[in-house]
Amino acid sequence: MDRWGGQSGRVALVTGASVGIGASAAEELVRSGMTVVGCARDVEKMQKLAVELQAAGHSGVQVPFQCDLNSEEEILSMFAAIKEQHRGVDVCINNAGLAHPESLLNGKTSGWKKMLDVNVLALCICTREVYQSMKERNVDDGHIININRDLPGRLLLSFQAGGKRAGGPPSTTTRHLSDANEQPLTQCTTVVHKRWPNTWLAVS
Fold it and tell me: Is the domain defined by 11-203 classed in CATH 3.30.70.240?
């Protein structure tokens, strides 16, 4: 986080920023001096944290943004607002996660769909929009961090750059994003693997 600290105008997006890893990451980025757009459905918790950080006199600022990651329309509206108000995103932490107790053999399709919408599609949409934001502004030191959680006894699908892995939890890796011609770009994406007992995941 020191990499972007003290640089005026740098903007970070943190999904699932109301609790747990997301809230902690947002807090540290604000402490480092960044403008942090915190995204979650529960905006009240983010507003409380924003007030506390402002009162502490940190050089950065948290901007709470209510967004349902099940909805591509809401995600795109959020990015449009970020572009209008802050020009774009330099750092993205895709942290939001959702788990329903829906087994493979007896689960409900609606539960699977909600998990895929948040855990896979929302991550992909946010990654795409952040990358396009970086590319439009010629940002050459941007970073996208994807938080991958492993629940004991459950199979999680994970996707890495280049399509080389389609199942099972990855170890922490760093890979360069590539364009359609497989030319390396200077932006970087990191997959961080966290095990269930050490983190927080929305279960409903």
Answer: no
* CA 145 – CA 127 distance, rounded (Å): 9
- Classify residue 162 as left (phi > 0), alpha (psi -120 to 50) or beta: left
Question: What is each CA distance from 11 to 49, 183, 203, in whole angstroms?
Answer: 17, 26, 29
Residue ranges per structural domain of the chain: 11-203
Q: What are 143-189's pLDDT values in tens digits?
A: 999 987 655 444 343 333 333 333 333 333 334 444 434 444 445 55
Which tens digits make up the pLDDT trace of 61-119?
Answer: 999 999 999 999 999 999 999 999 999 999 999 999 888 888 888 888 998 899 999 99
Q: List the alpha helices (DSSP H) in the chain.
A: 20-31, 43-55, 72-86, 109-116, 123-136
User: What phi, psi does 40 have (nearest 5°)?
Assistant: -170, 170
What's the pTM?
0.77
Residue showing tokens 């105008």: 9
List the structure tokens of 84.
């209008």
Tokens 């540290």 — which residue? 28
